[in-house]
């Protein structure tokens, strides 16, 4: 089955055309500056990048350009649009309405729209992409794959905040979690690599990048995760503060004479390793400053990041009553042996032994624990697009 995977931002659109039998990416690309001057589509086939400059006034224009590129006689990969069997849309927030991926109907669209207040920066763009595809490809099945759905298996004592219960009832204030598609993919892939049923495993998945989250996955189900009502909760990240004392917000409002909105903006965009280091939100820049230049604030920011991850791994081992595997993924998790080693230092009491030579790996699947390690430590590059494609295929096959 050929599945077109769409991931829409407010002024961008990422896409991949995936052959699900084998997972081959036939083409992928990025439409940028949608609704802005100098719109650009970068279409990638077999590592050959074709850049197409053409105005895209909205997501409908962008989708049309993507489809035109896919069927282009020179650099296309299909003869016509009829070869696209379905479209899988990444949708950030499904609230409590969705525990898994679903075929998109009018009712589903309404439910996604109802979640806009929970994800005001993301869901509107996701809806735009869905409607654009429906307009141009009215007879092609569309599936919504939610970042939050995988974490809907969390028990109530894990997802509820200890604030008046009425706020959960009235305003849906609870922990939702994000990066669900990534956590789902790498946990299942880890089980395949270990050749063990995921139902028998306790896995901690560490999605570490500019945005970072950790999940405790027991028997294939998420029972806890570090992000919460928004992606601001949890670990220190590229520019996000992660967990802080809530009173800091009102304290900064008073001291800096700023609004709550301005403080939240600081916590989202000016904090994390960027705020501590004063250098960058890119971990590669910070590592270079810390390890090559001896920059103490850069080193401090990495220590804070690693410590937060370490604490969360320990708490999730307690929550699950033990662990069978720890999985590292995403930009930092996949590509930084130094940060992985720093995170794991002092955690060997959990039953693992890191093989430092095997840990010297970047961007590919590997078991980096010693052969006699009871708990396996793994690097598994995430593949959210493939997970979206497989979910879409599964949903479409059930209605065929």
What does this structure look like?
The protein has two domains: 145 residues, Nucleotidyltransferase, domain 5 (2-Layer Sandwich), CATH 3.30.420.40; 189 residues, ATPase, nucleotide binding domain (Nucleotidyltransferase, domain 5). Strand 1 and strand 2 form a beta hairpin. It has 14 helices and 14 strands. The chain is 38% helix and 19% strand. It is globular. Helix 1 packs across helix 3, helix 6 crosses helix 14 and helix 11 crosses helix 13. It is α/β, with parallel strands linked by helices and 400 residues long.
Q: How many angstroms does the end-to-end distance come to?
A: 13 Å
CATH C-level class of the largest domain: Alpha Beta
Number of helices: 14
Name the structural class. alpha/beta
Helical residues, percent:
25-40%
Shape assignment: globular
Beta-strand percent range: 15-25%
The profile of the biggest β sheet is: 8 strands, mixed
Rg of Cα set: 22 Å
Q: Residue ranges: pLDDT <50 for 5 or more in a row?
A: none
Describe the secondary-structure layout.
Layout: E1 2-8, E2 13-19, E3 24-32, E4 40-45, E5 48-53, H1 59-70, E6 86-91, E7 102-103, H2 106-114, H3 123-136, E8 142-146, H4 156-159, H5 165-171, H6 180-194, E9 202-207, E10 213-218, E11 221-225, H7 247-256, H8 260-269, H9 272-277, H10 283-291, H11 296-320, E12 325-329, H12 330-335, H13 337-344, E13 366-367, E14 376-379, H14 384-399
Parallel strand pairs: 1-6, 6-8, 9-12, 12-14
Antiparallel strand pairs: 1-2, 2-3, 3-4, 4-5, 7-8, 9-10, 10-11, 13-14
């Amino acid at each position: 089955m050929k599945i077109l995977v769409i991931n829409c931002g407010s002024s961008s659109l990422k896409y991949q055309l995936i052959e699900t039998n084998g997972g081959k990416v036939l083409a992928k690309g990025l439409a940028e500056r949608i609704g802005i001057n100098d719109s650009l589509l970068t279409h990638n086939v077999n590592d050959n990048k074709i850049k197409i400059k053409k105005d895209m006034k909205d997501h409908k224009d962008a989708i049309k350009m993507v489809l035109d590129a896919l069927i282009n006689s020179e650099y296309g990969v299909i003869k016509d649009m009829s070869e696209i069997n379905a479209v899988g849309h990444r949708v950030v927030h499904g609230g409590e309405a969705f525990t898994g991926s679903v075929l998109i109907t009018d009712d589903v669209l309404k439910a996604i729209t109802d979640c806009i207040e929970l994800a005001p920066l993301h869901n509107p763009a996701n809806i735009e992409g869905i409607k654009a595809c429906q307009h141009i490809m009215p007879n092609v099945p569309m599936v919504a794959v939610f970042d939050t759905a995988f974490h809907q298996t969390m028990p109530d004592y894990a997802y509820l905040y200890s604030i008046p219960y009425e706020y959960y009832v009235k305003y849906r204030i609870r922990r939702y979690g994000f990066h669900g598609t990534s956590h789902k993919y790498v946990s299942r892939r880890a089980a395949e690599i270990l050749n063990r049923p995921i139902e028998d495993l306790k896995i901690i998945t560490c999605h570490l990048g500019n945005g970072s989250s950790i999940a405790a996955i027991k028997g294939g189900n998420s029972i806890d995760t570090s992000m919460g009502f928004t992606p601001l909760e949890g670990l220190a990240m590229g520019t996000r503060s992660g967990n802080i004392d809530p009173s800091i917000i009102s304290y900064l409002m008073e001291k800096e004479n700023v609004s709550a909105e301005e403080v939240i903006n600081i916590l989202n965009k000016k904090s994390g390793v960027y705020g501590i280091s004063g250098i960058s939100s890119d971990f590669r820049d910070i590592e270079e400053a810390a390890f090559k230049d001896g920059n103490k604030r850069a080193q401090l920011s990495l220590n804070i990041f690693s410590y937060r991850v370490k604490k969360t791994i320990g708490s999730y081992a307690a929550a699950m009553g033990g662990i069978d595997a720890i999985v590292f993924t995403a930009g930092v998790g996949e590509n930084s042996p130094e940060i992985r080693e720093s995170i794991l230092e002092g955690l060997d009491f959990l039953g693992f032994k890191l093989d430092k030579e095997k840990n010297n790996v970047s961007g590919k699947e590997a078991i980096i624990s010693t052969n006699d390690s009871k708990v396996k430590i793994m690097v598994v590059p995430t593949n959210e697009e493939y997970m979206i494609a497989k979910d879409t295929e599964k949903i479409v096959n059930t209605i065929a």
